[in-house]
């Protein structure tokens, strides 16, 4: 999979993709993340990519031309499955959407900034608009990193144990059950006996019951309750 991220602040993303699972995924050839500096696509001598809003009002708007040049340059090189715009008024990101994205080959992610992008960019180029929550950040770089992380970890071969992702929260509309590791007893607190029993079927049953109870207590909406 290849993910191209368009941003006017590329250095914000440098470290995120240079460590841990995301770094290993790229080194192993499972994923490729390419960050594009939007300022490289402006013809303005000051490298500006924003301007004042028509009609007045506070805040600046990202211009059409640099974004259009960048997207068209990328689309001339390969076919993209989606052009995604990270925006607070987009579709709320969930695991099912991430699962769908993880099956794609090439994605473009556009990071919003200032008051957002000129609406004509959304109308002409964007195929999906995604929000990571009902709040506003300074830009779309962190949301783009969050989305990329969620996608890449699902690609076969990225995680050492590929079944790990299948038991994450939200994969079966349930939250994950409690997990434990050594020591088996700490300050009088013991790991549940069932997890030390070696009885795989009963352990699976216990985990399902715990996941169901946790979901009912914390996110009953996932169960339609």
Distance between the terminal alpha carbons, to the nearest Å? 37 Å
What summary fits the major beta sheet? Answer: 5 strands, parallel
Helical run tally:
6
Mind telling me the C-alpha Rg? 21 Å
Summarize the structure.
The chain is of the alpha/beta class.
How does this model look, in words?
It is a single chain. With 225 residues, this protein is α/β, with parallel strands linked by helices. It folds into two domains: 151 residues, Alpha/beta knot (3-Layer(aba) Sandwich), CATH 3.40.1280.10; 55 residues, tRNA(m1g37)methyltransferase, domain 2 (Trp Operon Repressor, Chain A, Orthogonal Bundle), CATH 1.10.1270.20. The chain is built from six helices and nine strands. The strands form three sheets. The chain has a five-stranded parallel beta sheet. β3 and β4 form a beta hairpin. α3 packs across α5. The longest helix is centred in the C-terminal third of the chain and has 19 residues. Belongs to the RNA methyltransferase TrmD family. Pfam families: tRNA_m1G_MT. Keywords: Cytoplasm, Methyltransferase, S-adenosyl-L-methionine, Transferase, tRNA processing. Homodimer. One of its GO terms (molecular function) is tRNA (guanine(37)-N1)-methyltransferase activity.
């Amino acid at each position: 999979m290849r993910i191209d991220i368009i941003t006017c602040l590329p250095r914000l993303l440098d470290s995120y993709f240079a460590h841990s699972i995301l770094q290993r995924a790229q080194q192993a050839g499972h994923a490729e993340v390419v960050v594009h500096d939007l300022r490289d696509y402006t013809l303005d001598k000051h490298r500006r990519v924003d301007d004042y809003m028509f009609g007045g009002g506070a805040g600046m708007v990202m211009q059409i031309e640099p974004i259009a040049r960048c997207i068209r340059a990328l689309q001339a090189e390969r076919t993209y499955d989606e052009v995604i715009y990270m925006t607070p008024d987009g579709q709320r990101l969930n695991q099912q959407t991430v699962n769908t994205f993880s099956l794609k080959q090439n994605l473009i992610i556009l990071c919003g900034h200032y008051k957002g992008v000129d609406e004509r960019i959304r109308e002409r180029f964007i195929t999906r608009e995604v929000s990571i929550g009902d709040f506003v950040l300074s830009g779309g770089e962190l949301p783009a990193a969050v989305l990329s992380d969620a996608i890449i970890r699902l690609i076969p071969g990225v995680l050492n144990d590929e079944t790990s992702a299948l038991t994450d929260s939200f994969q079966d509309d349930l939250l994950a059950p409690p997990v434990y590791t050594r020591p088996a007893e700490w300050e009088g607190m013991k790991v549940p006996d069932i997890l030390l029993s070696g009885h795989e079927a009963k352990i699976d049953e216990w985990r399902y019951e715990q996941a169901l109870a946790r979901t009912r207590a914390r996110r009953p909406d996932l169960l339609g309750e």
